[in-house]
Amino acid sequence: MEARPLSAPYETYLHMLVDLHRLMAPARYLEIGVNEGHSLACAGSGTRLLGVDPAPRVVSLDHPDWSIVEATSEAFFRERDVSDLLGGPVDLAFVDGLHHFEVALADVLSMEPHAHPGTVVLVHDALPIDKPTSERDRSSVVWSGDVWKAVVLLRRHRPDLTVTTMDVSPTGMAVITGFGEVVDHSWVGPAVRGLMDADYGDLVAMGVERSLGVRPGTPAVLADLLPARNP
Ligand SMILES: C[S@@+](CC[C@H](N)C(=O)[O-])C[C@H]1O[C@@H](n2cnc3c(N)ncnc32)[C@H](O)[C@@H]1O
Fold it and tell me: How confident is the model at residue 67, as a pLDDT?
């Protein structure tokens, strides 16, 4: 098969996820929001998979080591220990649960104690298409919600992390690296309240590219974003 050029964009976020699993070969993978299991199915057979979803619709998965906890991410992080369940820290995580920014942000910060310097955390739906698809209340088939605000806040309040939004179809994927510091989360409450009423027009006014750190959704960019060390 012909190798695809590193500058050609991934067709979709799932193609990017497959490539990331290939590049990282993570031992432990956490996914928030599994739905029918399409993104879980991107993992290689050597990765232990843990999914979290209050209403999973995964019927079967052709993989030797997977489990799903039926719960909201909020309840999951409150009641369960991720590292215990996975048998060690999280190498790769994918946040794709409730499309409300305060929940996506809490998902990232709640898994932070289970991350290490080589951990990569992805946040789906970081790059909204337009106003209707980026509303908090769903009114369209493609729906990113206001997850973009989580990216704005992480870029604003967590300079220790590298937070980049890759422009992959349909609604972008944030790639977060640089975990490992013990950090103060006291900024979260006021910052969430401050952005709660912002809408797509405010994002445009702030500058989409700059506020979200947008880069092309290509293999070359993904390779550039990966931590040098993946223990
Ligand atoms: C967009 S779908 C996930 C799609 C899947 N990751 C994929 O790419 O194929 C979102 C999922 O999030 C789940 N969800 C909704 N609220 C949630 C919450 N509070 N915590 C975790 N998952 C949630 C829904 O049940 C739904 O299955």
Answer: 97
